[in-house]
Hints:
Number of helices: 9
Structural class: alpha/beta
Strand content: 25-35%
Amino acid sequence: MIEPVTNLICPLDQQPLQQHDMSWRCNSGHSYDIAKQGYVNLLPVQKKRSKDPGDSKAMIQARRRFLSQGFYQPLAEQVAALTLTDNASSVLDAGCGEGYYLQQLIQAAERQGKSLQVAGLDISKWAVLAAAKQDKRATWMVASNSAMPLADNSVDTLLCLFGFPTEAEFERVLNPGGRLIMVDPASNHLNELKQIIYPEVKAKPEQLPVNESRWSLTQEQRISYTVTLPDNDTIRDLLVMTPHLYRSSQAGRERAEGLTTLDVTVDVWLRTFCKQ
């Protein structure tokens, strides 16, 4: 059975939130409406760094088109399999994007007949809107990883997939003995695309994404394989959905626009950490 994570807290005063019909409220009277698409915005205006923070609508649309073709399916399956070990009962995807990996996890849990409480948050309202449309059983929140609207010790598995860890907040919301599962690019990730859009590809130093004094590495797996992008639209979607679009030069983007097919390497680290 798939159920929502319900132990939310108010982003303004950190008091527990209770759901009343189509809103979440705290005892201080702060109220947050649940949108018709099934998500709640828990990112107060005063905590936004820009008018429309996070990934843009165009980035989310490109990522949905790209991921729907199955290029990252082997990775999603490995993440789901790892998450569902050790009798995971509650999962938060911190930086859930359009919900691709969490949806794959939900489907895997259903196939195995496992019960799971599920939540996803992202600072991009466009991402959460797209995610909520897929499955309304999960709790979907517009929120920041730097101030997650969840109670202390409230989830036993936290996912950070191609994201930016906020270690203090991750430690706070994880149960004692909880797990942090991370996916990060390895040295050869998307190298073929980088060689086209950048004048020089600099070697990426291999290092753990979190502080070893605060986290213990309990599992590490490198996942590498090659996919063929069949047309220019797909190549463009990959470029648009990543930060490389904004980091590349005009000349590099023009070279990518001229491609009709591209073999590209998926090369990532899948790691599990627990709190020290």
